[in-house]
Amino acid sequence: MSNLQIGLMSIVLILVLIQSGLHVAIALAAVSFFSVALIRGNFDVAGTFLSLAALESVARYSFGVIPLFVLMGLLVGISGLGRDVFEVAGQLFRRLTGGLGIATVFANAVFAAVNGTSIASASVFTRIAVPELLRSGYTRRFSVGVVAGSSVLGMLIPPSLLLILYGIIAEVSIGDLFTAGILPGIVLSLLFVATILLLAKFRPGFVLAKPEEGARSLVADDLSPSQMIGKSAPVVLLIVIVLGGIYGGVFTPTEAGAVGALAALVISVTRRSLGWRQFWGLLVETGRVTAAITFLIVAAHMYARLLALSGLPSQMNALIQHYELGLFAVMALYLLAIIALGTILDSSSIMLIVLPLILPIMASFQVDLIWFGILTIIAVEVGLLTPPLGIACFVIKANLEKLDIPLNVIFAGAFPFVVAMLVMIGLVLLIPQLATALL
C-alpha cells in the first residue's frame, strides 16, 4: 500500500470511527499513530514522531488563552448578565413587529462578546428568551428558531473558542482573527434582524401564533434609563476591558483572557451570584473543557503530521493544477464539503479533520488565512443548525425543560437563519474586505 493510499484510508477510517461513537481525539490520534507506523515500518519511530507533534502543539504561550476564556465564559453565564441584556434589548425593540425576536438576536450578539461559545449562548437564551417569546404570542417554531439561529454568533463575534482553535491549527494571530470577526459578526446580526422583519411582513404565520392579534409585549415597560444603564453597564464594561485592551494594544489575547476572567469573577461576586462551592465547580469545569480541547489539538497535530508524511496535500495540489481549478472553484468545493460534513460532525471535529488537509492548498494560492478562517468559521457554524446532528438544536431541546417542542420544529425554525448564514458566506467570499477591513 502506497503512502498516498494510507493517507486516504486514514481519512475514511477516522470518519467511520467518529460516526461509530469513538471520541474524535482518540480516533485522530489512534489512526495517525498506526498510519505513521505503516508508512515508516516501525512503531518506535511512529511513537517518537507523534510524541514530538504532541509536545509542539501545546508548548506555546498562546495556548494559555483557552482555559482563561473558558473560565470567563462560565463566570459570565452564572452571573445573570444574559438575562439583563435580554431585558434591556426587549425594552429597546418591543414596539417593532417581531421585536422580541430582534431583542434575542441583539442580546445574543452582546452576550457573544463576553462568552465565546455558541453552545453556551443556546443554553442560556433557551431558558431566558423562549418562555418570554411564547408568552408574548410568538409561535413555537419561531421562538426556538431565533434562539438557535442567533446562538451561532457566539463562535464568530470575538472572543470565540473556534477562532482560537483555528488560530492554533493554522498558526495565525489570534488577535487578528478576533479583529477580523467583528465586522462579519455585526453584518450577520443585521442579516438575522432583516430575516425576522421579512418573515414578520411576508410570513406572519411563521412568526406569530395569531397574526391578526400581533405580539403582546410582556417585557417590562417601566425600565428607566438609569435602570437600563445599570443592567447593561457590567457587560459593556467587560467588553471594553477585554476587546478594548486587545485592540488598543494594552495586552495580548492571552493576557486579555486573564483580565477578562478576573473582571467576570469580580462582577459575579459583586452580584452575589457566585459562592465558594459554585466557584470550585466552575474551576473543575474549566479544567475539564481545557483538557478536552488540549487532547483535540494534540490529536489534530498528529493527524497533520501524518498527512504531510503521506504526501496527500501535495498530491491534491497537483490534481488541482492538472485540472486548472481556480481559487473560486476550490473554495466552493471546500465550503460545500464543510457544510455537508456539518450534518454529521460537530464544529471542532470538522476543523480538526479538514484544516490540516486544506491549509497547504490555500498556501499555494497565497490566500489570506485570516479571511479564510472567517469563512471557515461561518461555514462550520451552519452545521450547528442542520439535521441530523445540529448540536445547537439538540442543546435547545435539552434545555426546554417542561416545554415539549420536537426537534423537527427546532430545525424548521432555524432554517431561515441558515439561509441568512449562506448569504453571509457569499458576501464574505465576494467581499473579502468584510473580514480584512479592520486589520
Description of the structure:
- This protein has 439 residues and is an all-alpha fold.
- The chain has one domain (3-436).
- It contains 21 helices and no strands.
- The chain has helices spanning 3-19, 24-40, 43-58, 65-79, 81-93, 99-112, 118-135, 140-151, 161-170, 174-202, 204-207, 225-247, 253-270, 276-310, 312-322, 327-341, 347-364, 369-382, 391-398, 407-430, 433-436.
- The longest helix has 35 residues, at 276-310.
- It is globular and about 75 Å long.
- The model has no long low-confidence stretch (mean pLDDT 87).
Summarize the structure.
This protein has 439 residues and is mainly alpha-helical. The protein is 76% helix and 0% strand. It has one domain (3-436).
> What's the number of structural domains?
1
How large, in whole angstroms, is the Cα Rg? 22 Å
Number of helical segments?
21
CA(first)-CA(last) distance:
46 Å
Helicity, as a percent range:
over 70%
Biggest sheet architecture: none
Strand pairing plus helix content: what structural class?
mainly alpha
Percent strand equals: under 5%
Summarize the helix and strand pattern as letters.
Answer: HHHHHHHHHHHHHHHHHHHHH
| Unreliable stretches | none
